[in-house]
Structure formats: C-alpha cells, structure tokens
Specification:
Blueprint: E1 5-8, E2 16-17, E3 21-22, E4 26-31, E5 44-46, H1 58-61, H2 67-71, E6 75-76, E7 80-81, E8 84-87, E9 95-96, E10 100-101, E11 105-109, E12 120-121
Parallel strand pairs: 1-11, 4-8
Antiparallel strand pairs: 2-3, 4-5, 6-7, 9-10, 11-12
The structure holds iron/sulfur cluster (2 copies).
One iron/sulfur cluster binds at residues 29, 44, 85, 87, 89, 92, 94-95, 101, 103, 106, 121, 123-124.
Length: 128
C-alpha cells in the first residue's frame, strides 16, 4: 500500500514546516463533526491540526512529531517529509479499506485556520 505525499498550506498549524510540509508522524482526515458524510472538500478536515506556529510552540508538536523519522528516512522521492495518513472520509473516491488514502498526493488547506474545522483535504473528490 502506498501512502500519499502530504502537501499542506496550513501555516497556523504547529506541525507545518516551510515548503508546505507536514512534520507530524501521522495525520487523520475526518468529516466535519456536524456532518456524517462529506460531499465537498470543505466538509473534510485534518484532525491533527494543532494551533500554533511551528517554531516557538514545539512543545505542543512533540506528542506527534516525526522526530525519529527525520533521523532515519522519512523522505519520499528524496525531498519530501510526509506523515502517515489515515482517513475516515468514506465518500471520497480515493478512500480505501482500512482507512487508507489511495491518492498519490493530498493537499491540506486552511489559510490562517484556528481550529480543525477550518482545515480541508482539498484533494477530496466525491465517489459518486
Ligand atoms: S494541518 Fe494537518 S497536514 Fe497540515 S501541518 Fe497540521 S497536521 Fe499536518
Ligand atoms: S483524498 Fe480523500 S481519501 Fe485521501 S485523505 Fe483526502 S478525503 Fe481522505
């Protein structure tokens, strides 16, 4: 099974790194809490969003930091650090069994987000 490369532009998240990379060891993509099912990318969110600039708020990030990975080999194609992705958005055409995402890459968005609900998986596409 492959794991998508994560590009993220949520620079208000403590896991964000310049270059639009995510330094979390793992991220979880969910449906927005008030919706049981996503119909658009705006209905999805990155549950692993944690508010705070990456430099200066590292304490909050350490519970889920890819520190060990940085030391070994987290690189995909030699350049990109990427977290493991689990996804619960079953209405997405890239969703696969065992909460796996089959997309080659995903783009998490939410400029100036202050909560998880303001983030989206922009790569979501309805399976219908
Ligand atoms: S919003 Fe999600 S994908 Fe983006 S940096 Fe934070 S944890 Fe990573
Ligand atoms: S592309 Fe679809 S399956 Fe992959 S993380 Fe985003 S919503 Fe989930």
């Amino acid at each position: 099974m492959s794991n998508p490369v994560v590009k993220c532009t949520v620079d208000s998240c403590t896991h964000y790194m310049p270059g639009d990379q995510c330094m979390a060891a793992k991220i979880s993509v969910y449906n927005d809490e008030e919706k049981a099912k996503s119909n658009t990318s705006e209905d999805t969110l990155c549950k692993s969003f944690y508010p705070g600039k990456s430099l200066g708020n590292m304490v909050g990030a350490l519970h889920n930091a890819n520190v060990g990975g940085v030391m070994s080999a987290p690189f995909v194609d030699g350049t990109q650090i990427t977290p493991q992705v689990e996804c619960f958005v079953k209405s997405c055409k890239f969703w696969d069994s065992h909460n796996h995402c089959d997309a080659e890459a995903i783009h998490v968005v939410g400029k100036n987000a202050s909560s998880t609900s303001e983030t989206d998986c922009h790569t979501y596409e309805s399976s219908h």
